[in-house]
Amino acid sequence: MPDNISEAQRFVRDLISDWSLYNGFVGAEMQATANPVYRPEILDNFLVGQGYRTTVQDVAGSGQAVLSQLGPWQGTYATELAPTDDPGQQVQGPEVVIGLGADGPTVSVGGTALTGFTYSMLTLSWTGAGTNPSAARVVMHRAGTGSASGGPGGGASAGGGSNPPQFAGTCTYDGVQHDWVGYVGTQPGTRARTPGTFLKVVQIIDKVVGAINQALMVAQLIHSAYETYLRIQGIQGQVQRLEPLQRQLEQAQAQVEQRLASIGRAQADIETTARQIASAESTGGGAAPVEEQGGTTAQEGEARGRASSDVTRTEASDVEDDVASGVEDDAAGDVAGEVTGDVAGDVVGILADLCCCA
User: Fold this and answer.
1) What is the pLDDT of residue 114?
2) H/E element holding 58?
3) Which of 71, 193, 221, 274 is most exposed, with the fewest beta carbons within 10 Å of its own?
4) In this predicted model, which residue has the larger pLDDT, 104 or 19?
């Protein structure tokens, strides 16, 4: 029987390739934060309901490690290049092979093994130093992410089955900076993009990866904020001793609400761009401007993001009234000191990390 950790990692792997699962997870996050006292059990119930025997605590604690494992992306990638300043000039790019050797993952470009490459949070990068034939930064993703139009980045590759690996990003090749896409399970030329959609594929995959990272950060914040709330409840000291910790809890909640609003806007942007790509490829032409197709969707994304912020703070006031009663000053001081020094530091550290990663 799988343990909670392996199930949490399986959930994150599936989250990368299933846009419907991602949207459902974000919806559960919004429900869990709809009141001043967060309810992580809503996320736990969502995970179990989707077939994952794990908890949001395990997803927040170990799931993100999956995003820094290159092994699941093994394969041979056919690629296409287009100069960044002239995306209409698309050409067949060098073959990229991601493998697993005795000492760990390997990457080759055009038959040349790369040295000094790094992989973290779905981002693979290397410099042009040494024998490397290029310098590049690409993000890994999987085509066909569960929506009716095939999901962000387009549908499954021809002949490649469902959800084959792909990457998109930029590289400096032969001294020229290019936009670069690659697909597993395709023959060169079978995924050629029209000039109007080639660059959008690069952009939308970057946005999808950013949105996934944001959703997992929110899960961490929900768990941390709830743990802080429980520790506040355990303190039966004077209200003034708890005020700094209460403010930190409110700041954490404000961070969650801001990021959910950002996710709402990103979802609307990604879905609009995906429809543009599908429309452009079905007609053989370029994608229409965002303003012509995505106005209503962007408003919906804003509304979706704001849904988490229309809440009251009455329960926070009740908490302060409860904790003000019935404990001696010296005991209250001991407990408050522990929470302010330890828990508040944990929350502030998490928020500082988020600001760096956002």
Assistant:
1) 95
2) helix 56-62
3) 71
4) 104
